[in-house]
Automatic annotation (TrEMBL):
PANTHER family xrefs: CELL MEMBRANE PROTEIN YLR413W-RELATED, SUR7 PROTEIN
Pfam family, one: SUR7
GO cellular component terms listed in the entry, alphabetical order: cell cortex of cell tip; plasma membrane
Domain of life: Eukaryota
Name assigned to this protein: Actin cortical patch SUR7/pH-response regulator pali
Keywords carried by this UniProt record: Membrane, Transmembrane, Transmembrane helix
Transmembrane segments: 6-26, 145-167, 179-203, 223-246
Amino acid sequence: MQLGPSAIPAVCTFIAFILGMLCLFAGSQKGILDGSADILTIGQASSYGAVSSYGASDPAPELGIYDFYAIHVMSYCEGYFKISDTGAAIRNVTGCSNRTVLFNFDPTDVLSGELNDGVNLSDINWSDAIDDDFEVLSTTTKAMAILYCIGTGATGLAVVAGAWLVFTGGRTQAIAELLLSMLGFIALGTSSAIATVMAMKFVDLINRHGKAIDVSATRGDKFLGMTWAAVGLLLVAILSSLLMVLGGRPAAAPPPADEPAKEPAEE
């Protein structure tokens, strides 16, 4: 089968849909991009060699908490750092929280539930400023997750419309693909912008407020790369669909095969 111009937006929306799904469901359970596609990670500033008053080189296990908490769109994952063969500290994810659309990471609630008996947040000099940062961002993160769901869902429907267009070449299908791609572009673009602000500005706030207690945050560059790649592909799909709709030349359906000539009836 020879593919026409309608295949360009169809392929772009399909790849964007896959990337959107990966961003949406990353960290939903252990093994699903739990260590490489987080929006940001909060944890110990010095993962190894940070001697505490408890006398441990890595105080987190002794306290009952984890070395890091990787925050995703609908969940968070936690674990410890381990030393690789090259001597670098790498993540070892031990588990992830339950997935929920209205997810919001509350560090006080999480840490309080994991600290060993007899240890509380005041013992580790936890900063209330970090809690305030997450509290201010709670509504925004929930809106971000909803927008990711809308954007990914609209992109998935655009994939269906695009596949239909490839095989039928109807103008209606081209318009449907265009509108759905535009909805996906707006929703994923907005949610990507929110995630970028979290990964950039919010990380700076945590690093500033957590410096005194050896708490820092890092942004998820791989996540940002995936989410903005999905937005860029949708833009290409929109422009391609727009050219077909305005030009009035969607891929035409293949003409029906000619009927075989009938033999003249014998007299």
